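Protein modeling request. Please complete all fields; requests missing the sequence field cannot be processed.
Requester role: graduate student
Desired output: 3D structure, token encoding
Chains: 1
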Amino acid sequence: MMLFMWSLLLFIIAFLIIFIALVCNLHRLLVSEDEREKGDAILVLSDGNGNGDREAEAAKLYHEGYCNKIILTGTIVGWKTYSSHIMREHLIALQVPDDAIYEYTGVTSTRDEAELAKELLEGLKIRKLLLVTNKYHSARSKWIFKKTYKNKGVKIVSVPVREDTFNRNWWKDHETRKQGVSEILKFFWEILRL
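Delivered output (194 residues):
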């Protein structure tokens, strides 16, 4: 009986050590940040939090000369209102010309955003796409876009919001903890959908 108790205790301690190591390093799995490079277009994924950080990042990249086109994806947020319409107004307020902004609507997921962009990207002859989202969402987004555009000749470059606070200590803050856990579940769901 004593051997069983010691074995159980060692198992619990080993499990806790592994769990803590995983939690502390999980941000490395969720965050994909490539070297910023010039591309044909910036694609800004629809943002559910409404704070405008994704549009602000796209405007910075635009003004820094990385691209001269910004593509917005839109989820429905109200009657005849899509998030991309609001994002467009924000970009215009950030001095991005209206004729540099493209959008498509009707998306409900990151997978939709990748699938529904195909026609627009082909029409604009996009070969290198800078993908803008939040850090916690960047690895899964890049993975979905790379799978969607495999053999299509489109390079996906992940450039998440620079000022995003999702980092090694993600689990210490309520908001980033929610983001991290939600993203882990969505990542596993995407893997199972294949």
